[in-house]
Specification:
The chain contains 15 helices and nine strands. By secondary structure, it is an alpha/beta fold. Helix 4 links the parallel strand 2 and strand 3.
Length: about 350
């Protein structure tokens, strides 16, 4: 047992807010079980009901054209690449109908930062989906929304209101990576800054669009930068209360410009998840990242602070391009949850139980 972290864990369990130094000390500790146990106790307090949620959803990437060339991404293509695409309506129809047939209630609509598609294209896309299908659209991460303001020369607030009115239901937390200038300058220098990412979320919350928050770690960042990222999310949640959930995952380096970096393992994932639960004291829901960690660590994460298994991921194209392909059906998710003594329950984006 690491005695240096015991006062910090007791502080968290007493309901006191952890500061930067507390988070850094926890990261430097190797006492995973003590950190995980504290995170699990806090999860039990917030979620004493004895069930674990999940959502039946599908990731639909409307285009892989992207001009920002992030070092960690194996998904993006340039206009001249033979496999660059913009999704067609027939293909979109097929994907949505298949999702609904499988009991899906949500699509995650994300794409590259396309250099020529204007706002009316996205508005038309949303209206077409909502006029044909009863499904929640969780779409357009902050880098996309920030890009829309720049390419259309329209204010962020107007962009968000127009997309909301066209049918956008919520904003995914993608593109956060690490919310520090150092990390972003190193791995995604053309992408929106940390301040711009946070401002998209702030303005989205103000116009009534709730969102998830994420962290992709395990590349060029320090432990201190991870803690800074979490504290900045906590500060915005204090201000707006608009985040429904937090999801962290490790860099998947294969087939990317960061392939030379050693992949961070499950020990670091479980520690990062647990520390996130302890620092983000104003977030109710934490998702397991079984898509990157696999079903076994995904299951174990339910004892390290997670209370939700995320989506069934009927389709996933970005992480899989980096060579990580873990799939679980609804039945498998329910089995994994049940083995730990929890009752699995389906939810919607807002964490309302629907079965």
């Amino acid at each position: 047992m690491d005695v240096t972290i015991q006062p910090i864990l007791e502080k968290a369990l007493a309901g006191q807010r952890l500061d930067f130094d507390d988070g850094l000390t926890l990261y430097k500790s190797h006492d995973l079980l003590s950190i995980g146990n504290a995170a699990d106790l806090i999860r039990q307090r917030l979620h004493p009901e004895g069930y674990v949620t999940y959502i039946v959803d599908r990731n639909i990437n409307y285009t892989n054209w992207c001009y920002i060339d992030c070092d960690f991404c194996a998904f993006y293509r340039h206009k001249t690449d033979p496999d660059a695409y913009v999704i067609s309506r027939p293909e979109l129809r097929q994907k949505i109908e298949e999702t609904l047939d499988l009991g899906g209630v949500q699509i995650l609509l994300q794409g590259g930062l396309h250099p020529t598609l204007k706002l009316d294209w996205y508005e038309d896309l949303l209206r077409w989906i909502k006029s044909n299908y009863d499904i929640h659209i969780h779409g357009f991460s902050p880098p996309e929304l920030d890009w829309f303001t720049k390419i259309n020369k329209i204010s962020l607030q107007e962009i968000l209101i127009r997309l909301r009115d066209a049918g956008l239901g919520s904003i995914p937390g993608g593109g956060a990576e690490i919310l520090t200038n150092h990390a972003r300058d190193e791995i995604s220098p053309k992408k929106c800054t940390a301040d711009e990412w946070l401002e998209v979320m702030r303005q989205g919350h103000l116009v009534g669009l709730r969102s998830s928050a994420t962290m992709m770690y395990g590349h060029v960042e320090s432990y201190g930068e991870r803690v800074e990222h979490l504290i900045r999310l906590r500060q915005l949640q204090d201000e707006t209360g608009g985040f429904t959930a937090f999801i962290c995952w490790s860099l998947q380096p294969d087939h990317t410009k960061l392939a030379h970096l050693p992949p961070t393992g499950s020990f670091d994932y479980l520690k990062t998840l647990a520390i996130s639960r302890l620092i983000l004291d104003n977030f109710d829901n934490f998702q397991s990242s079984w898509v990157t960690q696999g079903p076994k660590i995904g299951q174990l994460s339910l004892k390290f602070g997670a209370n939700d298994m995320g989506g069934t991921m009927i389709e996933e194209n970005v992480v899989s391009q980096a060579g990580t392909v873990y799939c679980m059906s609804m039945e498998e998710i329910e089995r994994v949850v049940g083995e730990l003594g929890f009752v699995p329950k389906q939810r919607n984006f807002f964490y309302q139980i629907i079965n």
